[in-house]
Amino acid sequence: MNRSVLFPCVALLVVCGFPLVVHGEELRDSIDHQLAAAWKANGIEPAKPSSDGEFLRRVHLDLLGTIPTHDEAVAFLDDTRADKRKLLIDRLLNDPRFAEHQGEVWDMVLFGRNPPGYGTDKRDEFQAWLRDQFAKNTPYDQWVKAILRAEGNTIDNGAPMYFVQYRNEPEEATQAVTQTFLGVQLQCARCHDHPFEPWTQLDFYGTAAFFARLRVVDIGKKNKLTMYAIGERNTGDVLFTGPTAEQVVGKKGEPVKPKFLQGEPLVEPELSADFKEDRNFPNGKVPPSPKFSRKNQLADWIARPGNPYFARAVANRIWAQFMGRGIVHPVDNMSRSNTPSHPELLDQLARNMVDHKFDLKWYIRELVNSRAYQLSGSGPVEAAMPQWFEQARTRPLSAEELLDAWKVAIGWDGIEKSSGKKASEDRYSPLGSGYLVQFLGRPNNGVGDFQGGLHEHLFLNNGGIGSLLSQSKGGLHHSLLNSKAPWTERVDQLYLAMLSRRPVKDEQERFVEFLSAEENSSGRLQEAIWVLMTCSEFRFNH
Amino acid sequence: MPDLKPTNAKQVWKLQFEGAWPTSVAFLGPRRVVAGNRDGEMFVWDLPDQSSVKPAEDKAASKTKSAAKGKQDEGENIAPVRRLDGHTNGISRLVSTEDGKLLVSASQDHTVRIWESAAPPSGKADVVLDRASREKETKQLPQDKRQAFIDAPGVSVATQDAAAVLKGHDDWVNALGISRNGQRLISGDARSKVVVWDLPARKEVANWVGHAWNGIVAAGLAPDGQTALVSEFTYKRDDFDIPAPALKVWNVADATEKLDILKVHIPKLDAKASTYGAASVWRSFIKGGLIATDYSPDGTLVAVGQGGETDTGKVHLFDVKTGKLVRTVSGHQYGVCDVKFSVDGKYVLSSGRDTVLRICQVSDGKEVAALGKARGGQFKDWLSGIAISPDQSMIAAADIAGYVHVWQLQG
Amino acid sequence: MTTTPRPEAQRPAIGHLSRRALLKGTVATASGGALMNWGSLFNSASAAEGVQKQQKRCILLWMNGGVSQFETFDMKPGRPTGGQFRPVSTNLPGIQVCELLPKISQNMDKLAVIRSMRTSQVDHPGGIHLMHTGYSTAANIRFPEIGAVVSKYLGRERSDLPNFIKIFSHGNSGAGFLGPKYLPFSLSPEGRLPTFSTSNRNSELESRRNGLRNFVEDVFAREHKAETARMHREAYEAARRLQNVHQVFNIDDEWEKNRDLYGDSAFGRRCLLARRLIEEGVPFVEVGQSSYDSHADNFVWHRSLLPPMEHAWVGLMTDLEQRGLLKNTLIVWMGEIGRTPRINNRSGRDHYVRSWSTALAGCGVKGGLVYGASDKDGIDVKDNAVTEGDFFATIYQALGIDPKTEHFTGVRPIPIAPFGSEVVKDILA
After folding, report:
1. Quick check: is C1 in a domain?
2. Class of B9-409 per CATH?
3. Is C305 close to B236, i.e. CB distance below 8 A?
4. Where are the domains of chain B?
5. Would an 8 Å CB–CB cutoff place C93 in contact with chain A?
6. What is the pLDDT of residues B236-251, one digit of tens each?
7. pTM of whole model > 0.80?
8. Per-residue pLDDT for C347 more than 60?
9. DSSP H helical segments within A285-398, as ranges?
10. DSSP sequence for B155-206
11. Domain boundaries of chain A, sorted by first residue
12. Which of chain C's residues have a Cβ under 8 Å away from the Cβ of A329?
């Protein structure tokens, strides 16, 4: 007997029926109403609201990618204003680190940990450009369009770098562009019509046809780096031979015309009969614009407000970044067989995204001001990404967030200043990117499942973060060791600096006992700092 | 001998050789072509002097029309005259003496065979070289006629046996080369064993073995047969366990290493290292193995082609004496299959996995001609082997789709 | 040995129970907490105890990318699908295998070859998941790998060595809903421990620091129940225990005298290390070999990959047999998929799961057996199709683990081998 019949999974129930959207309401309230309705419908008790310390650390990490300093933590915790959370959010959204962090998150979405090559592993100009879009709060549709139109070059403009990673690989570009920006997965349709979804091979190759004429052209050097431009030829097609399994030796491919996903074929002007194209774009020269650009047609189609996938995909992706799971989860698999948990809410998010002209800062402000985002992470739910958003998700920090948070916690800035040496330009200083990325480098894209393993502990336990346990002047260790304050106060300072909260009674007692057990506390203080750097409370955003 | 005229090449013959993939081709004299395939079948064609000579209907080489005829500019099909019998597994390479008297074949059946052009036939056979086309065409026939169409007789050819079978390998013989003086032969197998043979005497004169886990993927002999170039490689045995490839010049007489060409070009190369990290040192230079090689007629240069399925397979030209890279030429999408110098040494010809045969000038590397057209979808078919007629008037290429293409080079 | 499932609410929360208590079957007062994705230690505890006594072990030889059946155990000489290798006869009358397996051909009496696998996932991620867990992926369930299941039932409690070790790991399903305790410990392709594996603190300092850390984790765990934090903590514990046993992983002392037996290859070294770990009591070791995904150049790839693999495989069986371990150690040989009968225009074979081959040896498996058959071109199974479920059921049965034993995620029962699968009894002695 199949017992799953007797115990149907609650996760299968979805909210449906009465209209949940109240007009004129702010999105944050609408989110709360709709989630509450789902809790009610499923008999779920949500967690209590987060404590100030919990919220402070969480929102710092989510918006800026790091934790607050000791002084910032004290200021917020002791602030008695009723709207201090809202004020904090506004401040953080205007902090330059907001743009830096969001830029880093999206850079990882667009390139991943291991981009295919051609110099794309070093893309400072792209990253700076992306950061700038967040700093200026450029509407999402506009900067995506800029990436897909890829105008200018990789050094002066940055954006063309995206296509450099798919050099001569129109099929790869097809897969990545549709998955990232439209939230759909076409890869099955590369070799055969999709068995369960509407995608056919002609959807795949029709999209690939938009990319088939792109060429990565080396147009010279600047600052010792190769400058690339994305050229587009006037001729050339993707050849299609039917299902891969039926490809036989000797069979010629048929050229496939560009076609919008699940839509109309592209109408293209005919080239004149005597048109003859040069063999290649020569190196060192900016490639001329084509007479008619397929790429730009696709860019405009993808990023237009009426595109059925575009707004939903980004609304869902950013939702997941802040709330744990996507309303459709995973976020880049929006398909018939992967239904949303809160369909009406997702519709509304997408609609509001369009109404607000893809203003991501507005959207993020709404999300983090919602009561749902501000629920506590403590409670009985074991799932790291609760299905009904009834408790805050527990997400591991990305390698970059961990590093930045550690540095804030142990006062690395102060150590660098006291040393008199110039601050390192390496983003991963002082640990270096190699090990950090190897052991802790799963990107924080908001949806990754955490599977803790031995390896990261071996790294943390056995010397990997030694350089951050510095005893130098200007740092937390030095300051606490040389403080004349009683240990109780020093333990408060330690907790505020590292965990953005004050210790509870038994924590305070245990740490005072530990730190004061010997005349010379230096070694023990180092151990205490290591303990707080490596503990679960630090490892996760919760 | 007239100069090779690479431009204005015209395809004059498209010889049908369906079944297993044609893998290799050779000229025996100016008008005789031999090709072998992946089942070990070998056929000989005698090309008429004028391409305009049309075979009479009753002697048609092929029963099928569409595949055989093709477009006007693709050349005509004619029937083979002989079948060379004996190999029991795929032919990897064919070479011939310049006088056209001897043909040598290397095979995955672990043998090397020597064939005499003037040998009398051993018998007769009816052969069908267009079975795949027939099967395709039957679809237009009424049901009851189909089997008969497929089973209809093919063409009658003479059969011939090998003059000698050289045994000394215990695995696939992948590499084969001949000295231009016709005295020496070199063969290399998938267990890294190399044998140099005295061709007239049909005897082994030297042998040596490379890295145990590598195989010999290409080998060539200097015009005088005194030195040899050998390329060793293994395909991904395991991502983290790839021994370094080797490209070395050897003294044949005492089987000693004379020059390690890769070491000249990649000083960091550690021949014993077998890790992924070590592989990254040589990978961009070697790609999927240097799987084809040829000595220039004057013996000063060697050409080696990057094979396997790589992004762009190129041909390296090395100075044999110093091992220095002279230049890198050509470029086949997905890799090179075969490399040959023109008889005058002015050009290097390469064929590849993009269904194209490319001709480049040795002096400056410029590609002066590209014969054939890319075919297929994302992946193209291969032109697996090339041959140049001794008078340089014709170029032949074996095509895995079941053809031998022959181009005439017009002045 | 099937245990009785209970609805979630009646089962005790196990978080505060000692493992020892569970093994004795002691039931503490239930607090009724939800146990999502945590498997059911309680229900299967007595099962685990019984099975452990038999000291059964398993080595999985994992041919990543999908080894070709045509180039190994199911040749089709003379057929259009046959390819470029030739068959050789074996020590079983009338049975042939590929010429690339000369050593295996003389050890066929130890193997049960299945020539009639028919499975359901044709791509790598799906196939790797399927052939590591027995299940296709599902949106809301994280299935455990066979190594995790075996380590749960055959593993030793709180051993210093991990109970589930992968050498050159493939697949990332890990412990799935069984929880972090059964996560694999993955060694490098060279069998080396990961960097930073060795502590340089003296044990007094180590234990002082550890005491404070445990306190901090306890405080956090009072309120935070998220499974990720728990995984984090358990992994930390395992990392500390590992410090005691480093020397086991260094096979240099044994390698010289075993080099010829296992063959001088990285895969050979991995197999020797696997034997050593098995001897030390590790119940499950997976040994990976990569690069079988021969969409192009299928024949040259297999020519390169198979000789060192089969040498090591035969070496491993010989070694285990000489040490009396083969009778209790099951060797499973498989990739995630088979390869197409048709040879494509890249001289490659693509993915295929309608009909392909796997092999088993040791631990109560009948040697000298070829089970099932494909048709003349290898296109379809002719006799006795074996699904992934049947295959896993047979493996678990051979290891003495009842394939019908159920785990739970939430309230949903999930048998170790998928519902409806059957043990292939003919294969087991």
Report:
1. no
2. mainly beta
3. yes
4. 9-409
5. no
6. 767 667 788 999 999 9
7. no
8. yes
9. 294-302, 310-323, 343-355, 360-369
10. EEEEEEE-SEEEE--SS-EEEEEE-TTSSEEEEEETTSEEEEEETTTTEEEE
11. 98-302, 396-541
12. 139
